[in-house]
Amino acid sequence: MPASVRGSYATGFQAPSRTIPRPSGVQPGDVLIMVHAVGTANLDSFQVAESGWSEVTRSSVGSGSTALSVKVYRRVATAGEPSSYRVTQSGSARTVVLLVVVRGAGVAGIRAQVQSGLASIDNAVPTPPGTPATGSGVDVRVAVGLRTFTATPSWRYPAGYAYLDDADSGGRLLVTAAHRAITSTGSVGEAIFRQTTGLNTYVGITLLIPASDSAPTAPDIAPWAPGRGLGIYRYTVHDLLTGNYLSDAQLTNVTFDRRINEPGTFSATIPIPNRTVADQVAAFIPRHAEDLSAGPGRITVCVWRAGELWGEYWITGAIVRRNRRGNIEIQLRGSTLDAFLSNVLVETSLIYSGDVITNIRNFLSHMQNLQGANIRLSLDSGTGGRSATLEAKIEEDPTYGEVLTGYLSDNRVEIFVDPRFNPVTGAIERVIRWGSPRFDGSTVHVVTESPHGGDILEWSEEIDALRGATRIRVRGGTPEVEDAEEGAEPLYSNWVSATSHLSAGWPRYGQVVDHPAESTSLATLNSYANRWISTMPGAVRVYSCTVALGRHTTITPSALGDRIRRILVNEWFPRKDGGATFNSEQRLIGIEVTPVSRETGREEARLILEEPTVSDLGGDRYPTEQRRHIWEMRKRIHRLGWRARRVPPIPMLWGPDPGNPPVLESTTISGNPTAGHFNGLLSDVSRMRSTLQSLIVNLRNGRLVR
User: Fold this and answer.
1) What would you measure as the largest C-alpha separation in the chain, in angstroms?
2) Which of 8, 415, 614, 684 is at a distance of 20 to 30 A from 59, taking alpha carbons?
3) Helical residues (DSSP H) of 195-324, grouped into ranges
4) Mean pLDDT across the stretch 137-148?
5) What are the DSSP calls for 587-652, one per residue?
6) Mind listing the pLDDT tens digit for each residue in 568-595?
7) DSSP code string of 10-55
């Protein structure tokens, strides 16, 4: 795990001793750094009372009223870590204590550099340069200053460092700290703090704390970086199974999306302008096939927007190519972690009976107990409140994703993987959110279009009568039969009609709809038919729009299930009585984000919206013609393979060979055939019989259809 600062505590006082509380969130193995500064020249007159602390460095400067001494200690937190620590010093000298908690650090390679002296006219406190022991860790800078008069402290911090903590003792003895990540073994330079109200003496400390493992620490986005909070993006590469950070990636032409009940997609390009960049990219896209340390299939890309995690995508493909201009680039493609489930085969028949959410939780646990399949997915807590049976049959060659898709549709449950960054542990948690029967967020995001401007860049409303119907029937699976000679036919629901549309004068046109899970329960098929006709009668309207994302946008990939309120004023929807004629809310069921690029010039998000009466019914929620064709093609291929695996066996009559050769008359055999003719024909018939038997077996197993 990369090293990182996880907490701090600072205080100032005048007393012979003081109890310092342990910062919250300290875990066994954390490294604690204590900076103890006292307004005295006697370094032996103050200390930490508890055992377990080791001194890292010390320094003393000045005399009399300008005397200042500092000690730095470190310790490793244990399971029985005390809740506080006591420091002592002689008399009632002014004292400040700073306690810093670093997680994922090692104590063996801590390097400390100290610089002290009389403050210059600009009240600078320089912290000296140094060379870290490893290329991963934390660079902590501490400034301690003393002045002979009382004033309110006001620090200016070194560029590139994040503020950590500060304290003072009566406005006279001051301490402050800042930090940043170590990302290479190269030396770090001097960093300067400045105090605006005047100093007499100072001590500047540089602490280079290495990570406990060899994984490089991801560089932070500095608070002063241009564009922070304006949509600045960062892309980090991680190992799929362990989550370990591998590298940052400089991506262009990025597009990523997230959807309910279906994997989202990711695409990006990595330009390779020189050898240095090529070597960096080769750390996660190996140049040669024999290098198994990383590459598509093993890595994920995390998308960070202004320091907030917006998604994690499993990289499943890469194309390395050189164009005719001589430029080399790598095109990446991937999916959200939902796609992983659809690529792990169920290798044993499973059945779970009980609460629907508990069944899903147990089903996912079974997958993640398989070797190499634990991607640390966890389902949000809670239960669905109703029971159903989840079954996976090995003879159907299903994947965990295919079984789960049918089960979700049958039981009206929505899910999607929502990765979250845990600031305490520093880990990315892969949480599956669920909603039953659907996600219905309480948040309403308002987007507008008017002649005076707005954040809607484009919108569309698709009206399609052939996606709906006024009469439908649902086709389910094929029941198994005991007598193979009888064969079997798919089970169908009853016909149902859109009575209100037919009564209003709509024509009679219909569809035969496939049940997503190919259920063989008539009650399930009838229920699905009634739900389909009630939600998609007549002509279906599906909305989508593209909006420009603002500086502090509330529309994020985690907002799926929330409501989008669109207020439109234009030529198609003019004002009426001073108000907008289009003012409607739709549920957000998908979002596709395109960061700023040379092509778009802005950061935008395409919102996939659900018409208020349309539920999630298989592929019916996708608003583009292309996606609809893809979904239909998937369903047909799945059904073809399903039927091929259910070709009933054909009985073969294996009687004895005829005793006498038959009399054959053909253009090739004339007169009485000889024994050689008969044996040749018998051999041909035997080969034909074997071929036919093999064909039947292959058709039954679906091998010739796939």
Assistant:
1) 134
2) 8
3) 275-281
4) 92
5) EEEEEEEE---TTTSS-EEEEEEE-TT----GGGG--SHHHHHHHHHHHHHHHHHHHHTTPPP---
6) 888 888 887 767 778 877 888 889 998 8
7) EEEEESSEEEEEPPTT--TT-EEEEEEEESSS-GGGEEE-STT-EE
